[in-house]
Known about the structure:
This protein is 32% helix and 19% strand. The chain is built from seven helices and ten strands.
Amino acid sequence: MKIEIFNxxxxxxxxxxxxxAHLIQQAIDERGAAFVxxxxxxxxxxxxxxxxxxxxxxxxxxxxxxxxxxVGLAESHPASFRRYLKERIVDRxxxxxxxxxxxxxxxxxxxxRRISDLISRxxxxxxxxxxxxxGHLAFNDPPADFETQExxxxxxxxxxxxxxxxxxxxFRRIDEVPTRAVSMSIQQxxxxxxxxxxxxxxxxxxAVRNCLELEVSPSRPASILQTHTAAIVYLDTExxxxxxx
Length: 245
């Protein structure tokens, strides 16, 4: 794992986007296609803005996979991650395809099996992720399941995670936030050849310190990134404020 610190969210987003573009194009050059996992949330705004402005990438050869989605939330809801990804990636660059999670599917466990089967057929070139205020990775809240080999799982969202969604403005009240989600598993995230973890803002400083400087533990899900040899964590001075090193 490598850590890079920047003076602003804009610098962070631009640097991460440049690295992402290189990895995507490298995969296309090597095997004619790239497979990418995309995250959502306020932390990804500057990064995705910069990445989708890169018109040198042959987006028609890029397949995206959805990282996580709320259970029971319609795509039309302002907090829907499908809506977010369509607006911020699909509508901008028109990739080859985007494998979305239908969180409002009638049988969410069957939906897990469907999307798991699709991603199991591919080798993911790069996964974009963040770190939650509670240290979560994707929607794997603490204590996270570090063992399951299932690519996608149904998870329970804890109170800290749900409060973060209200704090970011996606929901008005905590009782509006779903209590479950479909999330890419920890082991599936680690299968990506490269992982780019974008984490700006002071409100993430505690989680950043705990996940990057303490030992790897399911109580700090994103700490597992310490074990990935091709993971880069992009911080700004605010999110890095509590690091000792």
